[in-house]
Amino acid sequence: MVLALQTYYALVKFGAETSLGPVVALSLIRELGPVLSALMVTGRAGSALTAEIGIMRISEQIDALDAMALNPYKYLVIPNLLAGIISLPLLNAIFVVVGVWGGYAVGVGLTGVSSGTYFGGIRDFVSAKDILEGLYKSLSFGMLITWISCYKGYFTGYGAEGVSKATTQAVVLSSVTILIWDYFMTSILLT
Amino acid sequence: MIEVVDLYKSFNDQEVLRGVNLKVEEGQTLALIGGSGKGKSVLLKLIIGLTKPDRGKILINNQDISKLRGKLLKQLKERCGFVFQGGALFDSLTVFDNVAFPLREKTRMKESQIRDTALAELACLGLSGAENKYPSEISGGMKKRVALARCLVMKPEIVLFDEPTTGLDPLIGKAIHKQIRDCQKSLHFTAIMVTHEIPAIFSLVDRVAMLYNGEIIASGTPAEIENSQDPVVHQFVHGELEGPISIQ
Q: Which of A72, B163, B194, B205 is the most buried (most CB within 10 A)?
């Protein structure tokens, strides 16, 4: 909604307020949706994942799996990796849909852009390539978040302090990696 | 048979094991005694392949576990069981699911068979009625017995116990010792038990070995260890404050 508001006042200066719909939609689909949903998942699920695996490590539950001749990666890493890869694009899709409707509420409801102009612009300017770009980013972010979170939990330090540090490191490293990786993905996908 | 030959292990320049030699014959139970934090648990984890030694051999039925990788290591581990000091129960699973877990993952048994086997094992260890509780809802003694049940349900050939009765009251400790002895009689497993329950443990085991300064300084029958004239062994076994072992 704030994106729509800011964009509207910027577009008015150029007399291009009819482009509000596609600008909001493209920003959300290609950039804000994947990145912001990934950052939210990092804070919510990535930290929980690191803490869970970290506690399993310090309470020897991972050693117990290993001692039973079971591969801990199969039980702890692979299911979470798959969950991350599947759930992040879905959360991104929800984020984008809600964002576009939020933009509609502001654009059409408050600033006076017509409903037809808003959605017509989106239909004309948003292509399958844009949606795929967002999808690829979400998939890769899902993999990065779960991989980093699992790694930090798996190789956590000793005691509660070790788990606490691992959780902080997982969130910081995931967030920074998302932003850096986003730049590379964007530069590759736009060329 | 378990044989440890000239085993060394260090952590961050701290040498924990300095040439450990140990032999446990098939079907025997060996008690491993020694001071706290002196490497007994490390030795058990090395034997089961949870960590790798710096050098030396760990032979289990003449196969060096430290050299094995992949499928061969997995096959060897499948024949072993480990009872962790703190139980290492899966805290998100109930007592029943903890015991059923290895059966579900390692066997092709039907769910009804798994249920019967796990419940029988729990009953054998006096845990009937606790099957739907979570590890956080049961006492320390029960946790140790659940860990024992989870280990023994797979009928291992070799079992490593890491302080199975430490911190428990004497009655529960004795009951667990008896259960271990009974299981050993029926399953005929080879066992190493890290313990501080001296002299109570002497009636349970076939042999005793003492780890001191990273080496096995004494090994023999319980009677030999109890009557040892070695000043270190004598001081430790009889819990004397005066002697060569300094308490830091």
A: B205
